[in-house]
Amino acid sequence: MGAAKLTVASLHKSFGGLAVLEDVSLAVTPGEFVSFVGPSGCGKTTFLRIIAGLESADHGGIRIDDHPVTKPGMDRGFVFQADSLLPWRTVFNNAFIGLEVNGAINPETRSRTQALLRLVGLGGFENYYPRQLSGGMRQRVNLARALAVNPEVLLMDEPFSSLDAQTREIMQSELMRIWSSGRKTVLFITHQIDEAVYLSDRVVVFSRRPGRISEIVAVDLPRPRPLSVKRSPEFVAYVERIWRLIEDDVRLSVLEEGG
How many CB atoms sit inside 10 A of residue 223's CB? Predict the structure, then answer.
């Protein structure tokens, strides 16, 4: 497998007296696409925020290329659930903002940002404003912004959750096309099991809080994957297997929330 791009070792996290993550360890190889599923409140987003350097762990460590992660950095790009675009900035200036904040403005980075906007299907929209874009287009800007800093690891926290079902399907396919062009290492959180199976090399299943890794499922489906693969018996079998792994935890979480 070679050296890991990302290593998570014995990660623990609590908020006050509430244990959120407990003894989470994982190694991710360069260029691997790994998705995370589990019941609501199991710590998936907290896990991603710790890797991003936006939260600190109580115990354990994270390394990228054997360098410790202690704060945010340009080696990681983060795509949030909400598009979080600045309404007074154009598409190009929104995509460029991470480079601007990090003082990396130069002709090369401007040219790369333009190329990324074309890659995500927004060529010709550089001077548009967020209010002029659909939800799917705004998330494409979000993705371009995260990629513009040329990160080693791309972190995605339910980026398609606010989109309608049809747009979400297209965005999954588009994400695969974009990922295939550069093969960034990707960590992707979703509540949709079929989305996780379609996108991923491995699906990491979290238990209910405090979040632990209960199982890791390798997805042995050939790439590239057309959307029609979702109707194949092999795909359906993966979805059923993962659902069986989380069904009891999901049911208990829903009952707790309802109580």
Answer: 11
User: Mind listing the pLDDT tens digit for each residue in 107-122?
Assistant: 999 999 999 999 999 9
Burial class (CB in 10 A: 0-12, 13-18, 19+), 108: exposed
The predicted model scores a pTM of 0.93
Class at the top of the CATH hierarchy for domain 1-74+154-259: alpha beta
Q: Any residues with CB less than 8 A from the CB of 165 and at least 6 apart, and which?
A: none
Q: Express each pLDDT in 186-215 by its tens digit.
A: 999 999 999 999 999 999 999 998 999 999
> What does the domain layout of the chain look like in residue ranges?
1-74+154-259, 76-150
C-alpha–C-alpha distance, residues 212 and 233, integer Å: 29
Under 8 Å between Cβ of 10 and 55: no
User: What's the pLDDT tens digit per position in 70-93?
Assistant: 899 889 999 988 888 999 999 999
**Rounded Cα distance, 202 and 89, in Å:** 37
CA-to-CA separations, 193 to 34, 36, 110, 149, 230, in angstroms, rounded: 13, 9, 37, 29, 11
